Amino acid sequence: DLAFKNDSEKDIVLYGKQLADLLERNGEVDKAIDVFERIHRRLPGELQVLGEFAALLEKQGNVARACRFYRELSRLYLQNEMIPQSRSVILKAEKLMPEDTKIQLVLGLLAAKSGDLEEARERFSSIVERDPENIVALKAFGDILARKGEVEEAERKYKAALAVLEKKQQYEEMLKIQEALIALKPDDIDEKIKIAEIYEILADEIKLNVYVSEAARLAVKKGDPEKGYELFRTFLDRNPRMDNLRRAYFNLALEQGD
Predict the structure, then answer these.
(1) What is the tens place of the pLDDT at every residue in 181-230?
(2) Is the separation of the CB atoms in 174 and 198 below 8 Å?
(3) Which DSSP string do the residues of the chain spell out, in sequence order?
(4) Fewest CB within 10 angstroms: 124, 140, 149, 174, which?
(5) What pTM does this model have?
(6) Which residues in 21-40 are b (16+ Cβ under 10 Å) and which e?
């Protein structure tokens, strides 16, 4: 209690773990879990606490919660490039709940990070087959396919993820996937228009201007300046106060001698 009052993270972990260990040895497992719960609420990213908490929950027989914390710990290790530790922890979870989609997702992400594209592909494919609206799996599957040069398949996975997000109106989440599509197809005018439309919904005038201008210049590069001009007019009709967009339109027309 004193460690919590003094807000000393080091002491919270040290004395909290000592108390939990003592309670466990005395057979008061539920109280030991309460201590770990309190530490975790205060320090959610404390790796050692997460590991011991998960192990205690597993010992208690609370498999679902144990796997949740093993999964969380594995993700934290993965974020910190601690690949062996991440794998060791998530394999404990897989042993307990081998069919759990979230565990399989972490294993897929771990395989992708480790460069094992075939294992990652198999895991993401299995997840998407069972859960066709799993956004993380669809995006990660698309990334694997893109790395393998399977452009059309990657595009299908990205667009499937975008369709789910658009239905839910999760426009911020759509941006990374749309950017991945543009990286996949950098000369596709329609993909640049789509990301411009997302930024339009989000009222980000700077990014809207960037992508409309890029799409219009691509149209010019492909020999269709009128399509580029029409793009500017379409967005200006909906956003008449965007002076930067109007200037970009004027500059492009001036460069083309129009």
Answers:
(1) 999 999 999 999 999 999 999 999 999 999 999 999 999 999 999 999 99
(2) yes
(3) -HHHHHT-HHHHHHHHHHHHHHHHHTT-HHHHHHHHHHHHHH-TT-HHHHHHHHHHHHHHT-HHHHHHHHHHHHHHHHHTT-HHHHHHHHHHHHHH-TT-HHHHHHHHHHHHHHT-HHHHHHHHHHHHHH-TT-HHHHHHHHHHHHHTT-HHHHHHHHHHHHHHHHHTT-HHHHHHHHHHHHHHSTT-HHHHHHHHHHHHHTT-HHHHHHHHHHHHHHHHHTT-HHHHHHHHHHHHHH-TT-HHHHHHHHHHHHHTT-
(4) 149
(5) 0.82
(6) eebbeeeebeebbebbebbb
For residues 39 and 13, what is the distance between their CA atoms, to the nearest angstrom?
7
CB 124 within 8 A of CB 137: yes
Token readout for 238 is: 């909906």
Residue 18 to residue 253: CA distance in whole angstroms:
73
DSSP character string of 68-124: HHHHHHHHHHHHTT-HHHHHHHHHHHHHH-TT-HHHHHHHHHHHHHHT-HHHHHHHH
Structure tokens of 125?
A: 């494919």
CB–CB of 188/157 below 8 Å? no
